[in-house]
Amino acid sequence: MHSLSSLRVKLEKSIEALSFQDKPVELYEPIIYTLSLGGKRIRPLLVLLGCDLFGGDIDASLRPALAIELFHNFTLLHDDIMDKAPLRRGKETVYKKWNTNVAILSGDTMFAIAYDFLTEVDPLLLPGMLKLFTQTAREVCEGQQYDLNFEKQYSVTIADYIRMICLKTAVLLGCSLKLGAILGHASTADADHLYSFGENLGLGFQLQDDLLDVFGNEEKFGKEIGGDIVSDKKTFLFLKAMELAGPTDLSAIKQCFSAREIPSVEKVKMVKEIYTRLHIQEKTKEQIDIYYADALKCLQDINVEENRKEELKALAKQLLGRDF
Fold first, then answer.
1. Which one of 29, 41, 122, 125 has the lowest number of neighbouring Cβ atoms within 10 Å?
2. CB under 8 Å to 250, separation ≥6 — which residues?
């Protein structure tokens, strides 16, 4: 059984050892740049933890873990273009540092390399892993499309939003863990329980991300604070505020999210004041706690010794307790 810290070290060494000698340089340099930006490496770590939970071979799970990290970063390259985001992990996004076309092509190449890495497993396990990975890739794209649709769609419910973030964010955490479970030769039932653990964890993680976007510290968060407000995104915070607001606050929210003449800084300040008045931060944290509890229930149902689950519990606690 491996500690979370030792798995992090093993994963980082594997990422640092990656080299792309292929040309053109302009295609591969942004990939190296993106991977060098770091991050928590949550999804590839989940692959390793999922494998280790069932006593699998960690070294054999490294390439699938890297496949997940490459796929995740591919989605970020394209998301940043669609969101017009200037920063990612405190650094210039690829489309800002190079240009949009480079970001699209480099992202597509990362997707292709991810599939290549995923095939470096036991041939008997490959069909199931490819089916899961492909299904997840489709779902992530579906979630992104729903996210784009919501920007122009006036009526969006909290249930709509939860479904969207489940596809866009949560399914990849579930997939990462289930890939690890498959590599660890887990039973179908245990692999499915682990997937559900990851899905609930992903939902809580995304709501935490929504909170950090409004109430977080920009230096720690690595992105501009208030970006969701400036972009008129219908996050959980926005939808909860619409649900709880009285006539005055409701009118103010609608004005802020429809008026183009309000400067970004002033817009963020106004919306944040409304959220604070309506206790939206506390309401969101309550929902995060529900997903965390549901995740732990799924983990409890997995048929392995309880001590083997401690590292997953520790990571879940870290993810849902990020600093503001």
1. 122
2. 242
Q: What is the pLDDT of residues 226-269, one digit of tens each?
A: 888 888 889 999 999 999 999 999 999 888 887 778 888 999 99
Would you tell me how many other CB atoms lie within 10 Å of the CB of residue 320?
A: 18
**Do 68 and 43 meet the contact criterion of CB atoms below 8 Å apart?**
yes
DSSP annotation of 23 reads S
Q: Which of 102, 92, 45 is nearest to 69 (CA)?
A: 45
Tens of pLDDT, residue by residue over 261-299, are 888 899 999 999 999 999 999 999 999 999 999 999 999
Domains of the chain: 4-319 (1.10.600.10)
Contacts of 71 (CB under 8 A, 6+ apart): 110, 111, 114, 133, 137, 172
Q: What is the pLDDT of residues 150-183, one digit of tens each?
A: 988 888 999 999 999 999 999 999 999 999 999 9
Residue 92: enclosing H or E segment and its boundaries?
Answer: strand 91-92
How many helices (H) and strands (E) would you count in the chain?
Answer: 17, 2
The span from the CA of 233 to the CA of 222, in Å, is 19
The residues pairing with 91 across neighbouring beta strands, listed in sequence order, are 88
